[in-house]
TrEMBL record:
Bilayer disposition of the protein: Multi-pass membrane protein
Location of the region described as Disordered in the Swiss-Prot/TrEMBL record: 531-571
Ranges for domain Cytochrome b/b6 C-terminal region profile: 239-433
Lineage: Bacteria, Bacillati, Actinomycetota, Actinomycetes, Propionibacteriales
Protein name per the record: Cytochrome bc1 complex cytochrome b subunit
Organism superkingdom: Bacteria
Keyword field: Cell membrane, Electron transport, Heme, Iron, Membrane, Metal-binding, Respiratory chain, Translocase, Transmembrane, Transmembrane helix, Transport
Membrane-crossing segments per the record: 45-64, 110-129, 173-197, 209-231, 252-278, 330-351, 372-390, 410-427
Enzyme Commission (EC) number: 7.1.1.8
GO biological process, one term: respiratory electron transport chain
Localization: Cell membrane
Reaction equations catalysed: a quinol + 2 Fe(III)-[cytochrome c](out) = a quinone + 2 Fe(II)-[cytochrome c](out) + 2 H(+)(out)
Compositionally biased spans, kind Gly residues: 561-571
């Protein structure tokens, strides 16, 4: 008889293995390899912030009362004692001053919301600038776009629940947007607010949306997003041993799970520290909401500041048609900006794929400098966003720096169109300059500062070969040539019915690629290292001959090596 004691989990695990093949599933995924780079932590910060939101939000639901019924405050905060307010605002004060740890949890919840949207935004920017949205990850990019939009809505609904003067002003902003809809705007406003603003039902209606509907949808989309990451395998930055056919990094268990678990507690600790030390949304200072009052210097949370800026700098354009007033000054910046962001983000992967004609799968990321037009578009969009953000605080800027608010507004009306163009041109030229420098380093090596004089009197500078890993990183991208349009007729003289579309596509392709500095071909590298072009390479011809094939992109996986140390490669 065996003396071994059966493990208490043995039977349940055996049951699951017999029914769903648990052992095979776990064995396949538990050793899955994930690459290691600091920028990948941005997505993890977003995920962990959402978990913190769920935990802290559950705590707050135990005491918050989503009711707009009027009560008289009799709590410990003396300046508001005896003031009429809604139960929602009174319960927020109760959480802040009476519940042990309540104020800390409120601030952790609010800071986690800020961090969640901020991390999502930075994560999408990293994805955009490195080309991680390309085939086969277009669907995951769309999921990320939807998650960002839902995060904005979720943040706004939570911001509105306390029913203080600041959040009430935000709801008045929404009421104005709804009324800006032609013809049906008034009906929409009455439906949402249950009558004339502010009504007495909007907080009870927002509450289940904030704590149930939107979190459930976001959780489902995050699950689908992570499942696609696992299915497609993670992208990785170029380097020795890294190709489109493998992943070089660390296995899920034990390395990655240990690192991810530790990073969660770091994010949680930093968020708790921010909640404890940095005051956020002190609703007792603002007081309860009153439709007759607006706080001076009212500002929304940072992620809605750009929409607020659009409203503030938009000219007073209105159209009167058949007795109806169409308020373009509200409709365009309110719904137009949010809609523009959603549409542009959703369509960009497909637009770039159409322009470049690239239908291949990509698992290696781009260096932003190697895609000057894409990078320039991204910086132009960030400039547009930043200028609108400044517009959202034009009153604060005017009072702080003693400027005319009208001058700031008129400056921004022009700057939001001119600034992105200037940012685009500067960024594109900067990227091309960096490409030119990389090309020179590949061809001639690294400058050593040593100048030698030959017996015949010729003076040359000694260039040392680049480090193999650096050279691999610089050269591991494809040569990108503009598409050719042809003559528009085939060999039999028949006109191409799609010639105009192809011509437009070729023109867009030239716009993307005509100014790029191409990576050197193998022949160019050999010629440069053979005659020196006025330079001398130390230690012979260096390594660059192994770094480029006939198409000019990296082909030296075996020569350079397939990742050393503790990294693993998953094929």
């Amino acid at each position: 008889m065996s003396s071994a004691t059966p493990h208490p989990l043995g039977k349940p695990l055996e049951f699951l293995d017999d029914r769903i093949g648990l052992a095979k599933l776990v064995k396949k995924n538990i050793r899955k390899v994930f690459p290691d780079h600091w920028s990948f932590l941005l997505g993890e910060i977003a995920l962990y912030s959402f978990i913190i939101l769920l935990l802290s939000g559950t705590f707050l639901t135990l005491w918050f009362k989503p009711s707009m019924q009027e009560v008289v405050y009799s709590g410990p905060y003396l300046p508001l004692r005896g003031v009429h307010m809604s139960e929602a605002f009174a319960s927020t004060l109760h959480i802040s001053f009476d519940v042990r740890g309540g104020l800390l949890m409120r601030q952790i919840h609010h800071w986690a919301a800020m961090l969640f949207i901020g991390a999502m935004t930075l994560h999408m920017l990293r994805t955009f600038f490195t080309g991680a949205f390309r085939k086969p990850r277009e669907l995951n990019w769309l999921l990320g776009t939807i998650l960002l939009q839902l995060g904005l809505v979720e943040g706004f609904t939570g911001y509105s629940l306390p029913d203080d003067l600041l959040s009430g002003t935000g709801l008045r902003f929404i009421e104005g947007l709804l009324r800006a809809f032609p013809v049906v705007g008034t009906y929409l406003s009455y439906f949402v607010f249950g009558g004339a603003f502010p009504g007495d039902v909007v907080i009870p209606r927002l509450y289940p949306v904030h704590i149930l509907l939107l979190p459930g949808v976001i959780l489902a989309l995050i699950t689908a997003h992570l499942a696609l990451v696992v299915y497609h395998k993670h992208t990785q930055f170029p380097g020795p041993g890294r190709t489109n056919q493998n992943v070089v990094g660390y296995p899920l268990l034990p390395v990655y799970m240990a690192k991810a678990g530790g990073f969660f507690f770091i994010v949680f600790g930093v968020t708790a520290l921010m909640g404890a030390l940095f005051q956020l949304n002190p609703v007792w200072v603002y007081g309860p909401y009153s439709p007759s009052q607006v706080g001076a210097g009212t500002q929304p949370d940072w992620y809605m500041g750009w929409v607020e800026g659009g409203l503030r700098i938009m000219p007073n354009w209105e159209t009167h048609v058949a007795g109806f007033t169409i308020s373009w000054n509200i409709f365009i910046p309110g719904f137009g900006l949010l809609g523009l962001m959603a549409v542009v983000l959703a369509l960009y992967p497909f637009i770039e794929s159409w322009v470049t004609g690239d239908r291949r799968e990509h698992h290696l990321l781009d260096r932003p400098r190697n895609q000057p037009v894409r990078t320039a578009f991204g910086v132009a969009g960030m400039t547009f966003y930043g200028l609108l953000w400044i517009g959202g605080g034009n009153d604060i800027i005017a009072t702080t720096f003693h400027l005319s608010i009208n001058s700031i507004t008129w400056f921004l009306r022009f700057a939001v169109f001119i600034g992105p163009v200037i940012a685009f041109l500067i960024t594109k030229r900067t990227c091309i300059g960096l490409q030119r420098r990389d090309r020179e380093r590949l061809l001639h090596g690294r400058e050593t500062g040593i100048v030698m004089r030959a017996p015949n009197g010729e003076v040359s500078e000694i260039h040392a070969p680049l480090d193999p890993e650096e050279a691999w990183t610089i050269s591991s991208h494809d040569r990108q040539e503009p598409l050719e349009v042809g003559s528009g007729v085939d060999a039999h003289g028949v006109a191409d019915p799609h010639f105009r579309r192809r011509k437009l596509r070729a023109r867009a392709s030239r716009f993307y690629f005509s100014d790029q500095m191409q990576v050197p071909t193998k022949a160019e590298l050999e010629a440069a290292h053979g005659n020196g072009h006025g330079h001398e390479l130390a230690n012979g011809n260096g390594h660059a001959r192994e770094l480029a094939d006939g198409n000019g992109h990296a082909d030296g996986t075996k020569q350079v090596g397939a990742g050393g140390g503790s990294s693993r490669s998953e094929h």
